[in-house]
């Protein structure tokens, strides 16, 4: 009896020790998990990161072609490609030659010019119809100009119609997404109320836990749908602004082209009338000026005394008064994320004597292999006219430095540093 009692006591002690050991292991695992979670939260922060690169300056604006206003010889100029010219600056002087005239041809030309001017005035003013004065309406030239007006107006209206359709659809999309966000928000509130009711019932065992999980998933799904709809609204509004701007630019471009052609026709009308009045055209000298401030891209005529024809292309100028684009190449480390709209600093000169603020407009991958795990990237920056130092930068052009401040995750930084120290590869020992 005593021996049996001792055996049972030893068994009880072994079971007690074993239970205490399991409890100790479990407490140790909880402590390790808590320490690991705290370390992860401590490291899951962002550190400031500054990236540097080089870029090139490109002027933004439609290239302007300067045409010869008359036949003649190039008298003089002091231009070269790459030179910056100011609006109104004289570019060329052209000498005309004395010649005899054909009165009938000049009178016919005057009529054609007057009829063309009527059309161009209507297009420049945005009129819906043409009204030719007096007997001009019965002429063949008037019918041709009427057909040209109708054709150009029809094409222009189709172009505007497409843009207006986009505006209407985008407005509808904005309204639909806002309504969807409100609808999902209300549905989520109802589902959350249902979840709040179910929670104590599940705790008491009255309602099955599976039903509670189903409602909780429903709340999460509705919240996700609400966020998707809410995030879609800014994108649609940006598209709407871009389309409205394109619409305004299309109208402005159409009327500006009509005004340019109108000015050319009026100049020709004045010269032709003067030639007809005098019976001959004496030798004259006419200056050609720059219509905008810009950089000379192509100098089509370079030799003085060269014979040129009316409407011959003399020079091409790229305007630099609107804005400048800078294409910068940088190497971006792991974990660094650059977004469109961020600010960047553009520097010029060996001593960085000029700093300008640019805005990131586009981010795109660049050709080439990674360096130390950092991916090559092209950043397109825009600097608008009026920024301090803009004029100086537009004149010097060429290469510039680019600096952008962003953030770098500590965990990504440590991982990037670790694999960088091992030759950009990692393997367990």
General description of the model:
This protein has about 425 residues and is of the alpha+beta class. It is about 50% helix and about 25% strand. It is built from six helices and 16 strands. The strands form four sheets. The protein has a six-stranded antiparallel beta barrel. It has a four-stranded antiparallel beta sheet with strand order 2-11-9-4, with no helix packed on it. A four-stranded antiparallel beta sheet has the order 8-5-3-10, with no helix packed on it. A hairpin with a 5-residue loop joins strand 13 and strand 14 (about 355-365). The longest helix is centred in the middle third of the chain and has 70 residues, at about 210-280. The two termini are about 60 Å apart. The relative contact order is 0.17. The model is unreliable at about 420-429 (pLDDT under 50).
Secondary structure topology:
Elements: H1 2-43, E1 46-60, E2 64-67, E3 72-76, E4 84-85, E5 90-95, E6 99-100, H2 103-125, H3 140-203, H4 209-278, E7 280-281, E8 285-289, E9 294-299, E10 307-308, E11 313-319, E12 323-332, E13 343-348, E14 354-365, E15 375-384, H5 390-396, E16 399-409, H6 410-421
Antiparallel strand pairs: 1-12, 1-16, 2-11, 3-5, 3-10, 4-9, 5-8, 6-7, 9-11, 12-15, 13-14, 13-16, 14-15
